Every structure is written in C-alpha cells, then in structure tokens.
Amino acid sequence: xxxxxxxxVRTGLAELAQPAKAPEMQRYMxxxxxFRGVAKPARQALASRVFAEYPLSDVGMWQRAVRxxxxxxxxxxxxxxxxxxxxxxxxxxxQVPERLPLYEELIVDGAWWxxxxxxxxxxxxxxxxxxxxxxxxAMRAWAxxxxxxxxxxxxICQIGAKGATDRExxxxxxxxNTGDADFFLRKAIGWxxxxxxxxxxxxxxxxxxxxxxxxxxSRREALKHLGARRGAA
Length: 233
Hints:
67% of the residues lie in helices and 0% in strands. It is mostly helical. It has 2 domains: 1-94, Leucine-rich Repeat Variant (Alpha Horseshoe); 99-233, Leucine-rich Repeat Variant (Alpha Horseshoe). The mean pLDDT is 96. This is DNA alkylation repair protein. InterPro entries: ARM-type_fold, DNA_alkylation.
C-alpha cells in the first residue's frame, strides 16, 4: 500500500502541475528544489483523496511512506504532501512522543521555514501539550541545539496553544536564544510572544520589559498589538 500511495501522490502532482507558476514559487521560497507549480488548495484536495484511497495499516508503514516521499522528493510539493501525511486525521493516534525523532529528522533536513513552522506548530506542539512530561526536556534541549531550526522549533512550537501555553517553557526557550543574531530566531521569538500576547498581554509586556537583551526585531514583533489593546481597554 505504501508504494501505491506514493505513486498516487506523484502522479496526482504531475497531473495538477502548472509549469508556468513553478519558477515564481521556487523564487519566493528561495528553494534549490524545483516546484511542480501546484497551489496549496489543490495539494490539500489531492492529499485528502489519495490518503483516503490508500490507508496505511500500521505506524511503521506510515513512517516509511513519509520518509520515502520526503527523502526521494524531486519537487517541493512532494515534501508538502509528506508533511500532510504526518498530520492526516486517520493517524492522529500515532501522535505520541515516539514520533519526535521523525519530526526532528524532517525539521533538520528541511531547514527552511515553510517546512519547519508547520512541523513545529502543528506536529511537535500538540504532542508537547498532550505529553508535557516527556516533551519538555526535549524542547529545552532543542532550544540550545547547534541547529537553528531546532531552536526555532522550540521557540514557536506553542503558537496557538493559548491558555494551554507552558509559560515557563516558553520563557526558557526564548531566553536561551535572546543573544542569537540569526534573523529566523529573532523573528520566531517575536512571533511566539506576539501570539501569546493575544491570551496574556500583561505577561508578555512584563516579560519584554524584564529582558532588555531582546533584539529590536523581537521586541517590536512581541509588542506589535499591545499598544492598541491597552488603548482600547
């Protein structure tokens, strides 16, 4: 079934290809891997159809399909479909701490924001919330990793958690990276704090005030909407 699913994904992408759009998509993403020119809505429809037609019966088969789609990809959309397969609702029961090595592999190998952000926020984050005891030590380690994409993942993985956000962990992951000059880390810090400010603006304002070492970019992003909210209050 794995081979049939992968073949159906590749065939479907080829049928949906719009070669005229592919170069612009590749330029926008600054990708060395070419695109087919398949837009997100068409990819989502293809994923929904193919994943339903070719169900995978066990976690080993599922992981093999993900890895084959990913590592043997000739076009970037194949990797988008691999990520979509990891999040398909039929396999939600497999979203457990044991999946972290798979997501770590894709994050490190993907090494760009379009892959990393989806995996960090929508795969790693839910596992963290469901299994905090198991995942907290890993996120603390990721926040100090030599790999900037693992550090970014640790910072942003709680985006969307709202009231379920582990503030202590968020603070620790941010603090581990305040001295990093990397744009993607500074942007991630601001983004994570800005999103949590929608839930607890006072905590974010206090955190920013207590950390003068935050970069101007991180600070500006974190406080982006707080002035307007306070004015409205």
